[in-house]
Write a structure and sequence with these properties.
YerB-like fold; mainly beta; 3 helices; four-stranded antiparallel beta sheet; nine-stranded mixed beta sheet
Length: 245
Amino acid sequence: VYVEQVEGGATRLLAVYSSRLPERVGPVRSARESDIALLAAFGRPALAYSGAQSALNPLLRAAPLYPVTESTAPAAFLRSPDRAAPHNLYLRPARALAAAPDAGDARDIGFRFGAAPPDGTPTTTSTVRYPAARHTFTWSAADRAWRVAMDGREARATDTGPLTPETVVVQRVTVRPSDFHDRTGAVSPYTETVGEGTALVLRDGRAHEARWSRPSTASGTSFTTPDGAPLAFAPGQVWIVLAPR
């Protein structure tokens, strides 16, 4: 799960499913330019979204991914009567993949899993702030994972309860204005995920300072300790919080 900044300083989640597909996910929102470079590390995935700015559509069609929308795969989407638009659009992932049969399995995106580094600072909670949003991760010893809160409210799945990633990575990146804007004129931010920088890796109730590196859009992102050794994540779900430097 990636957290990225969007217009007005709010955030959106980009969820990547590779081996197990839930029956339904959502609400589905619009695509952003940053998604193109971010997803290129996976190979050629399917990207399901509710729409995009008209000027962005040619870039999405030319990108190494398979766009899946209501117009290209109507059977993959449904509207919930319990929520108001635009927050009522949901996706059936299995049908989305059926509409993109040439989408490939995720390739190596650079993450490594295994034992934790020997050091790290004991940490019970960590908050990442955006101009108009905040995400807080609180260690749960009972879950052996981090509980997620968005703007002070616990984040929950409708079927499995609280969201509990085993690893949370606060990846410090450059967030700059893009060439696109929404219908109100607000400029869409662009999150740069190619390059290098610092990060904070949260796992097993500890925080580890790290460095990240991604040489190109075709490559994955590696995370290392400050002295250059690979930094392994805890096996399980990973959240990458793309935080402004």
